[in-house]
Structure formats: structure tokens, C-alpha cells
Amino acid sequence: MVGLATRLLIAERVANSLPPTERAVVDAQPAWYFLGALGPALGDFVPSDQSTTLGGPGRTPYWAVWKEVFKIAVGDTASGIPGVAPVLRTLQSLLDSVDSAVAAQDKTALQSIVDADASATLNQASADLTLILAQFSDPARLLLLGQLMGSASRPRIDDPVNLIPPAVWTGRDWLHGKQTGRFVRALRKHAEASGDPRFIAYSRGWQVAFVALTAGSGFVNASVGSAYRTHWWRHRWVSNFIDTWVWGFYRTGATMSGDIPSPPFSDWAGVCVAGLQDKVNVTGVKIDHEAHAKAIADEQPIAQLLPADFVDYWLHAFVDVYGTVGTVGFTADSLQKAYTGLTAVLWFQTSGAVIGCNPLPGAPPFGTCADAGPPPWVDPTQVNPITGAPFLPQPPAPKVDPDVAEIVSGIILALLGVVAVFFGGFIVGAAALVAGIAVIIGGATEPDWNSLRCDVYWLKSYLSNGLTALHNLCVLGAVQHPYPRDLAVNELVLSFSGKEVPFASGAAVAKSAPIEGLRQPWDGALSTWTSRPTEPMEMPITAVFERPGLWPSAMVDDATANPSSHGVQDQPPTPWPGGMSEYFGPAVPAAIALLLADPDDLPNWNLDGDRGRGWLTWELASPYASPVNVVPES
Questions:
Q1: 3-state helix, strand, coil in the chain (%, to 5)
Q2: 101 and 173 in one domain?
Q3: pLDDT tens digits, residue range 269-300?
Q4: SS3 state of residue 285
Q5: Are residues 333 and 444 in the same domain?
Q6: DSSP-derived 3-state class of residue 88
Q7: Are residues 50 and 113 in the same domain?
Q8: Rounded distance, CA 510 to CA 486, Å?
Q9: Which of 405, 414, 464, 407 has its CA nearest to residue 116?
Q10: Distance, CA of 37 to CA of 604 (rounded, Å)
Q11: Do residues 178 and 256 share a domain?
Q12: Residue 560 CB: number of other CB atoms within 10 A?
């Protein structure tokens, strides 16, 4: 499964290389072209709800996963859990204000912050962040997500007891595994018949998606160790690492000398702030993705964002190929939900509004701050062994008779999310703070600005550590991309409450690896998707991608590393059962060739590269077993 960011990057490079006439089609309607380039990703969310009818379309566990994830992003109304996005905005905004005032040694700005009751606001935001970290590292919640990502997401075709007909596959599996070439042509035919430049651009984008998946799935399968059907969540996890590499490599204009990047990975552009939700915004107005994510999390009515005429166009093409509307749950309503869900996912992953790229705080601002070392509360993922609760920022114990400078430090500490208690009681402490402010503003004394800068630095470290922990949890769960700097190491560590969970990163994930064939289906055990599959080989063994040790540029546009020997638009040299020894090469030149040739017919390639390289779409003739009993799709 080629990731969404990689698909959009491929589509962009294809558009930039087209002749002027073809390029003009894209330039006239870029959002529609790029939405088309996401191709069958819409099927991830179709149908959008679990079927209540026996024999009805298969449920969509991916939608259920994102319901839980959006509770992290925007909060869970039912349980009262705050959301990362609003908490992060609060912390970042107020910390930036304090930092700016301290850096400028501006006492008036400090008093304005105090007057705005920033102490209470930051105190609540700090407590909210700690609650979020605790809730979403809770074993019960992780178990629920693990089940949704694991056994619940197992493609239904792999049922060893029952023969599952395509009519109850999910929309995702349908669009990847049935009449794929015919659907590309139907979208193009109906777009041209309409004369609508939006639909024409969209159909061009879908052609690029068809090529990106046909040409790129072999590389991804080699990185994963099997096909999407048998190791589905590992595919999503590996695709996020590949997305980070592809986006950073091309956006930065980087080069690789073996495994050594120039510039270093830490200086690469991050997909975490790529804003891909805006790249596919076809509405013409700004979309409130946070509100839509909230509606999904709270199971409220979902916004209808797509123009009705586009929905009609898409469904007409669908019926032209597959039959009646409603097949596998594809309806006007589910298509609308799919677009809203897909763009909300892109917002969560790439807007920077949820967890963002979280730059490291850097070195302490001066020697004495570094010499003192971090306070015990600087890492919100750790537990206080005395209380058994996470550490919260606490002020140093003041002297019984503090001087004015110490009172000022107490003011800033209060602003940084603590309850400052002087002389053993809040009322007395508040009076001391007020008196201290009056003395400062009156000009009778100067604060210890270095001490205040140190306080601000450690609070920024506190925030960075909390967001890193949450980010690593989301990376481990395959719902967020790693940071470019994560590619520099072959292992990341998720840490909560003193417990560490290491998992692979960097070249160990993003490069193609030796692959003998496909593995039998994963058992769905929680978090084991980070390990290369060790299940028995699925028989018969087929050719997948025998070019190990390559970085992902090989599937984008590096024809030297990954030369082609067969065009995506060419019919297979042998009839069914499919599979061939030829390679399609990288996606960008293959997509350009397809767009310029615009053939009347296209092979129905399996877009997951399943069961091997160059396989036509297929289904099973009997319940799943190895050797698989594969027949042409009906």
C-alpha cells in the first residue's frame, strides 16, 4: 500500500513533467487532480458504519480506529478527555508569550500575562496534557485500538472457514481488487462526456494513483515482508515511514550516499506540517477539519462536503463498471463520509495543528541553567514513586522570607502551570505575589531574567517531552508519520510510566528488503506489526520485488535503481493466472507514459501487488488455505 503523501508527491512530479497541454488540465483544477491521485483511499472509509444486516457489506474497522484516534486529537465528550489540538494551542501560545516577554525583559508584558489569568489557564492545560498521556497509554485503551487495528481489520477474504464473496468485502478491498483498469477508464469516459474540467482533472489523478499503486506496491511489499491482505496494519505502519522519507527527500532536494543523507535527516522537510488536507480541498472554502474530526469522534452527523454533481459523476462511473449503487456500501452518503474522513485524517497527520513536528527545545540558554540540570517534573511520562502519579511542575520551596527577586520567579513559575504556595498558604502567597508585581512595575527592582529564562526553557522541555511521547505512541500505532529526524536511527523507544517499548525505524523500515514471496496472514496480535513477518510462506510462492536494499526513490522516479521492462498500460504477456517476471519500474515515468498513451483498455491489475508482481485481480474459489485456491474475479 503506497502511502497518501507518497501518492501526492508522485502526482506532483508527474504533473511537473507533462507537456503543456496535459499540464494545463491539472493546473486548471489542481485540488481535483490531487484528490484523484489518492485514488481508492476513499474506499478505506466505505461503508462508514458496521452492517446490521446479515450478509450486508463488510464493516469498516478503519473508520472505528479513527474514531478513537480523533478522541486524542479533539477530545472525547462522553468521557471528558481533553483533546491534544486545543491543549497544544493553549500551551504553545502562552509559553510563547512568556518566552517573548522574558527574552525582551519586558515587565509590562509580564504583568499583562498575569492580568489575563494565564496561571490558571496554563495550570489546566498542563494537567490536561498529563491526563491525555495517561489515558492514551492505558492498557485497556491500547488493547481496544490493537484489536481494531489487528484482528478486526483482517481482510474478510482470508476467512479459513467460509468462502467470503466480494459483495461483503470492504470498499477498500473492492477498489484495490476488482475491475481496477475498467474503473480507471470509466472515470475518464464519464469525465470527458461531462466536459467538466474538475472531473477531467480528477480522472487524470486517478490514473496516476492506478500507476503509483501498480508500480509501487511491489517495493512496499518488499519493505513490509508481505502483501496488504496478509499483513495489513504493518503495511500502514511501513507506508508512514516511506512517506516521511519520500516527502523529505524530494521537498528538501536531498541526496543519498549509501545510507548517508545530505543534508542530514534532521534538516529534511517534514510531512508533519505538509498541510495535505488543503491540497485536496475541492470545496473552494476553508474546511474546519477539527470540527469534522469531533463529529466523527462523538458519532454526530457528518458534513456533506463534496459537490452533489461530483458524487453523481463518481457513482455513475461506479455503476458502469460494478453494477448498482450500494454495492459494498458505495452510496452518495458513504462517499461523502469517506471524503470527510479522509481529509480529517490528512489534517490529523499533516496539518501541524495536532501534534505537529514538535521541534526539540535545544540546549539550555546558559551555563548555570544547564549545570543545575532538569527538574524532576520535566518528563510528564514518568511517575513520581512517592505519589504513584505523573510528575507535575512544582515550584522550588521558597525561603520563609523571600526577597523581591524570588517573588518574581514565583510569578513566572505560576504562569508555567503550577500552584505557587508561599508561606504555607495560598492567600498569603497571593498577597506576596501582588506585592512583588507592584514593586517590579514600579521599577524598584529588576527580576532575575536568567532565572526566568531557565524556568521557561524547562517548561518548553516538559511540553516537548510530552508531545514526543504522544507522537511515538501514534507512530507505533501507524496513525502518524515519524519525524524526519527519526529516520536517522534504526530504533525508536516509546516510554510511559517508566516502561519502554522499542520499535524499528529508519533504514530498517523504509528500504526494500529481500522477500521470497508472501506470508500467511498475521494473527493480529497487538503491536507485532513492527516486526518483519515470520509466518509460514503462502503457497504457491510468487515473484514480488527482487531488488533489495533500495531507498523509496526507486519506486518514485529512480529508473536506474528500478528499471522497467513492462508498461502499466500493456496487457500481460501471459493469460490468467497472472504474475509475470517483468517490472513496471518507478511510478513517475510509468504514469506519464499512461497519461500520454491514454489507451482504450487497461489491465485489471491488483493494486496491492497481491499475490505477486503483475497479478490480475482475483478471488478465492474456496475458504482461505495455503496453497491458495485463486481464480479470476467474477
A1: 55, 5, 40
A2: no
A3: 999 999 999 999 999 999 999 999 999 999 89
A4: coil
A5: no
A6: helix
A7: no
A8: 11
A9: 414
A10: 18
A11: yes
A12: 9
Q: Which of 418, 443, 472 lies at the terminal end of a domain, its last residue?
A: 472
CA distance 379 to 381: 5
Q: Could you tell me which residue, 164 or 243, shows the higher pLDDT?
A: 243
* Percent with pLDDT over 70 in the chain: 85
Task: Note whether 170 and 291 are same-domain residues.
Answer: yes
330, 311 contact by CB (below 8 A): no
Does residue 68 sit within a domain? no
Q: Are 34 and 205 contacting, i.e. CB atoms less than 8 angstroms apart?
A: yes
Q: Per residue in 27-66, pLDDT tens? A: 999 999 999 999 999 999 997 655 544 445 555 889 989 9
Same domain for 515 and 593? Answer: yes
Average the pLDDT over 570-575 and give the result: 83
Q: Does one domain contain both 386 and 419?
A: yes
Query: How many domains is the chain built from?
Result: 2
First to last CA, the chain: 24
> Kind of pairing, strands 630-632 and 491-496?
unpaired
Range of the domain at 570: 4-60+144-355+480-632
Question: What are the DSSP calls for 307-354, one per residue?
Answer: -HHHHHHHHHHHHHHH-STTGGG--HHHHHHHHHHHHHHHHHHHSSSS
Q: How confident is the model at residue 580 (pLDDT cuts 50, 70, 90)?
A: confident
User: What is the pTM assigned to this prediction?
Assistant: 0.90
